[in-house]
Amino acid sequence: MRRRDTNSNGEIGTEAAARANILGMTPRKWRLVRLFEAVARCFSGEQYFSFIDLLFANQMNWIKDFDNNNQLTKEDILEGLSQMGRFAGLSREKVQSCAEDPKNLALVDANWMEGQTKYNVNSTPTFLINGTPHAGEIPYDELQKILDPLVKK
Question: How far apart are CA 1 and CA 79, in angstroms?
Fold first, then answer.
């Protein structure tokens, strides 16, 4: 069974392309984020955040064209996630299973939809502070002005 956002060749479909466009990403980047998050969902609690940190810290090592065909494909992404997964104790088979798990993908999609509908997230980065979205980079001084009153409560 193929995901509903890809065609039989594994190419990104219109639904995912629309999501990617809203977030200012290419469709391929959206596919990467979706797989990245689906694999991360196999962890819980602090392990989830540690895995996310590992992936961000090592982006140049795992987001690359492993098969040298001048394209970043789903297979390349899964290879990179498998390599990073080993550091976190996941086998290649477990990474593949997590990336294709309909429940994990549904959680990723639901999280995206909540950001869109509940918080009006339409750019990256967007920070939710006390339920209020703040789009784009926030200079430290401005962030401090937002957070200080909340901390003093």
Answer: 21
Q: Report d(CA 76, CA 63) in Å as an integer.
A: 7
Q: Judge whether 3 lies within some domain.
A: no
Length of the chain: 153
| CATH code of 113's domain | 1.10.40
Inter-residue contact 29 to 39 (CB < 8 Å): no
Regarding whether 67 and 43 lie in a shared domain, the answer is yes
Q: Which domain holds residue 137?
A: 120-153
By three-state DSSP, how is residue 116 classified?
helix
pLDDT 10s digits, 74-115:
899 899 999 999 999 999 999 999 999 999 999 988 888 888
**Count of structural domains, the chain:** 2
C-alpha angle 94-98-34 in degrees, rounded to nearest 5:
140
Contact 99, 39 (CB under 8 A): yes
Look up the pTM and report it.
0.69
CA distances from 48 to 36, 45, 93, 116 (A): 11, 6, 18, 23
